[in-house]
TrEMBL record:
Its cofactor is FMN. Pfam families: Flavodoxin_1 (PF00258). Keywords: Electron transport, Flavoprotein, FMN, Transport. Gene3D superfamilies: 3.40.50.360. Low-potential electron donor to a number of redox enzymes. This is Flavodoxin.
Length: 158
């Protein structure tokens, strides 16, 4: 399965996580600004952090506008969300939820959900019924779990 990872990253953490996942999946990794290439992939992984009080990371503004107009029917989509559950527990990984809300009615197949067990947050647009929309990483508070979470998620996607 040809896989492309599209990321938006302000501090480099989301880019780093995307590259680590990409290496394990033998995926192409590129910035969100290359979203036009999504048509070339069987599986597209959309990676973002959340900024401010639940805001989408800046690199995703224009690509999300493009995504909303694309034919995504039949496309497999997975998410990587990066956030800080202790500092922003009421908007933890909202970024992936914001993107998902814009494309969920476009015939996509969401893959790669993960359990919210082991995280401590009060609210998230990136979670539904005990599951996150994808891989969720908190490098600020749980960096010791990052490698394990990435490995388990990649195995699930395979």
């Amino acid at each position: 399965m040809k896989t492309g990872i599209f990321y938006g990253s302000t501090t480099g953490v989301t880019q780093d996580i995307s590259e680590r996942v990409g290496k394990l999946l033998n995926a192409d990794v590129m910035p969100a600004s290359d979203i036009d290439k999504i048509k070339d992939y069987d599986l597209a992984i959309l990676a973002t952090s959340t900024w401010g009080m639940g805001d989408l990371q800046d690199d995703w503004f224009d690509p999300l506008d493009k995504l909303k107009t694309m034919d995504l029917a039949g496309k497999k989509i997975a998410f990587i969300g990066v956030g800080d559950q202790e500092g922003f527990g009421d908007t933890f990984v909202d970024g992936i939820g914001i993107i998902y809300d814009e494309i969920k009615g476009k015939g996509i197949t969401l893959v790669g959900k993960t359990s919210t067990d082991g995280y401590s947050f009060s609210d998230s647009k990136g979670a539904d019924d005990g599951e996150f929309l994808g891989l969720v990483i908190d490098e600020n508070n749980q960096s010791n779990l990052t490698d394990e979470r990435i490995a388990a998620w990649v195995e699930k996607l395979k």
